[in-house]
Amino acid sequence: MLSIRQSAALRAITVVAVAMSAFHLYVAFMGPPDAYIMRGSHLAFALSLAYLIMPGLSGRAGRAGWFDVLLVAVAVAAAMYPAMRLDYILNRIYYVDDPQLLDYVFGGALVLLILEATRRFTGWALPVTALVFLVYGLTLGNQSPGIMLDQMFLTTEGIYGIPLYVSATYVMLFILFGAFVERSGAGQLFMDFALAIAGHTSGGPAKVAVITSSLFGTVSGSAVANVMTTGAFTIPLMKRTGYRPAFAGAVEAVASTGGQLMPPIMGAAAFVMAEFLGVSYLKVAVFALLPAVLYYVAVFMAVHFEAKRIGLVGLPKADLPRMRQVLTERGHLFLPLVIIVAVLLSGKSAAFAALCGIGSVIPTTWLRSTTRGTFTLTAIVEALESGARNTLVVALACACAGLVIGTITLTGVGLSFTGVVLALSQNSLILALFLTMLAGILLGMGLPTTPAYIVQVALLVPAMVKLGVQVEAAHLFVLYFAVLSAITPPVAMAVYAANGLSGASVMDTGWAAVKLGMTGYIIPFMFVFSPSLLLMGEPTVVAMAVVSSTIGVVCLAGGLHSHFFFGTARAWERLMLIAAALALIKPGLMTDLIGLALIALTVASQFMIKSPGVNAVRKEST
Questions:
Q1: Domain extents for the chain?
Q2: Are 94 and 368 within 8 A, CB to CB?
């Protein structure tokens, strides 16, 4: 039974969270106020919730004390300080007028509160990174405390910069949309839809995991949340049908991670990318579409070939939902997603599209009696609270990343880092891309996707552009490796989440995930050299790239998982399939012909030297 203090704390959390969601819905409908008011309010809500949800140094939920309440009050005052003194902020000349004592007091307090709140929600990596950059700015960067305070607190180049703007304007609304969609029962729709499509095929449960996680991932935008939501059903089902626990966990981790790359919604970093590129979010979604589809085609075929290799069969059709019944009872719940896509295609902003999507969720549930009673007043409050809670990590990470970006912009360390990358790579694009990949994975292992992407944009993208990489390809390149760090050992957060459900070894699951997601590691190199994979260029060239790269990723899945359409693949056949995949994924007539020739040789080899039958007893996975 909850104590009076715990009950009061939980009620306070609900009130603040609902108020945060209501504020953002109001702003989306009425139009945004001044930047400091909008971003300051967003940050004030986020910090208040952070210290209420995880009070004390140990972060024990429900035990907020007087000191935590004091921190909330200071956080609100500090975050809203520029908005409260808006005339002073707008009329002063930054970097020229010396900050006042109150500026130092509230600015310093806000920096410390952001660092501590971020530590509680994301761990030490991001706040330590921000601290390193702040110390660099004050020492090696030769910046005075006054100039640093100006940059971080009294302009929109630091804490109140683009990352926090994106979190306040777009990300909050799309996360809120995801919370409403989840409450509508769409999760069950995604699961039943996938079971009806692929549940009866070879290795059906793994294919269900791929389809479900791709659908749910476009809404959630979080690999770990996706794993915990869909994996609770798919991982036990995969284990029961014969997949190794490590492989089952890897399938869910890889499929869930891809949700951040799959339009129409993708993850929070995609909205930041749109701002950095100065294009609409719809254009970013178009750039990302084909690589994301290739990623999922490769994963789907990998689980198919693995199932064929070890002799797994699908689930009995009698135990599976019927597609007609699924669509009749819950198919209308796809409508909010369709509305978002339609609004984006009409040329409206991403924020307006999210608002339309949110507004359509509840009326959509009224279309069928099976879902008509879904949204009670309690359910609406829970959705509003869930949306605010789920925004916290992104909001805090964006505020903390603002400290990093502010320092990089002020000191010019980004240009120095560009010079280092160019010197190490000796102006070799391949080597520069490889170094960028390693840096992206390392940053992503310690940071959430959005700040990892933001830091790379400041430090690595300029070097890539200087070497001739198209700017859109450079941004998507670093985003991919920030995302894929979630499945890359030794620190692979999506794998850790999946392991909690599968019970397998972390390293076994991690390496199985790398093999399953191998296409994700290769595709970014390909679209750097050929933007046709980003659907840019002549239609005929793009069409050829779509066909050849699709065949290529299927070959890659077959080569890595020792099976092709006509039987088990021997060592030389696997090598030919992998070589064919690399040739076909790279757009170009000559490479396509080489790839097709290698496929023909593989097929001929399988027919001329008959493959041994599938050993149904053999259960291990390569």
A1: 4-155, 173-375, 537-612
A2: no
